[in-house]
Design brief:
It is a single chain. 54% of the residues lie in helices and 12% in strands. With 125 residues, the protein is α+β, with helices and mostly antiparallel strands. It folds into two domains: 67 residues, Arc Repressor Mutant, subunit A (Orthogonal Bundle), CATH 1.10.10; 43 residues, no CATH class. Helix 1 packs across helix 2, helix 3 crosses helix 5 and helix 4 packs across helix 5. The longest helix is centred in the C-terminal third of the chain and has 19 residues. The chain is globular and about 55 Å long.
Amino acid sequence: MKLNHECVRDLLLYLEDNLSYNKSISINSLTLKSYSQEELIYCAEKLIEANYLICTKADGYQPPLIVARSITYSGHQFLDNIRDNTVWKETQNILSKVTSTSLSFAGNIASQVLSNIISKQMGLN
């Protein structure tokens, strides 16, 4: 299955806005934009593997039950790099020119795009 970077971003943004210290969120019951339950669960699994999300996962079910409890510090750093719409659009434009990209690579590109925007605004270029 292909990892949908738009879904990753939208899921992280949703979780950041809706998780709280005492509130967890079932990924299985989410309705988010036009993403299928399968896409959301797959993205959540990959975010867990990347250590961007802390979740409780029950593998004995099909699909597995995933309850998001928190975004990790690394997850927040990644999200901070991809949050801004201008940065994200430029990052997607750059990533569209290569055939495959990892989440960490996408985060690195977004960080460079953000640095370039800040440099231009400060007149450092």
